[in-house]
Amino acid sequence: MEGSIHRGCDFIFDFNCFTCMETYRNTEAEFYCEECSKLHCSKCVEHHNYLYKKHAILGKENISLWPETDVVEQEKCKEHPKEKLTIFCEEHSVLICHVCHFHNHQ
Predict the structure, then answer these.
(1) Confidence at residue 10, expressed as pLDDT on a 0 to 100 scale
(2) Each residue of 26-79: pLDDT tens digit?
(3) What is residue 9's three-state secondary structure?
(4) 25 φψ region: left (φ > 0), alpha (ψ -120 to 50), beta (else)
(5) 106 pLDDT band (50/70/90 cuts)?
(6) Strands, DSSP E only, in 18-97?
(7) How many angstroms separate the Cα of 15 from the Cα of each of 27, 99, 102, 106?
(8) CB within 8 A of 25, min separation 6: which ones?
(9) What is the C-alpha separation between 83 and 59, in angstroms, rounded?
(10) Nearest to 71 by CA among 28, 15, 24
(11) Quick check: pTM over 0.85?
């Protein structure tokens, strides 16, 4: 069995789905909408495309046209910006820092 150190981390993505992040889900984005300037996973892009039929959607084959992200910023806690995300809360399926773990995820 190959460890995540060889294949990368399963919980930190270069691009996260914006809709899923709003509901505290950690889902990898597979599409980018140029009109909305938002990234979507495969499930959320279906809903988006139903509502916004004329929007230009870029898949991963055009990832060079997606906005650049700062992975270092994504590794920081949104509630405690000075803290790194170091713990995965299995109950909530979310990455958290040690401060969140102490206060909200015991």
Answers:
(1) 58
(2) 889 999 998 988 899 999 999 999 999 999 999 999 988 888 764 555 677 888
(3) coil
(4) beta
(5) low
(6) 31-33, 38-40, 57-59, 87-89, 94-96
(7) 9, 25, 28, 28
(8) 17, 93, 94
(9) 32
(10) 15
(11) no
Buried b / exposed e over 10-34, threshold 16 CB at 10 Å, is eebbebbbbbbbeeebbbbbbbbbe
Judge whether residue 94 has pLDDT over 50. Answer: yes
Residue type, 58: L
Q: What are phi and psi of 66, to 5 degrees?
A: -75, 160
Q: Which residue has the tokens 């979310």?
A: 94
Token couple for 52: 């916004």
pLDDT of residue 70: 47
Residues with Cβ < 8 Å from 75, sequence gap 6 or more?
12, 84, 85
Residue 9 pLDDT: 53
Instruction: Spell out the residues 6+ positions from residue 2 whose beta carbon is closer than 8 angstroms to its own.
Output: none
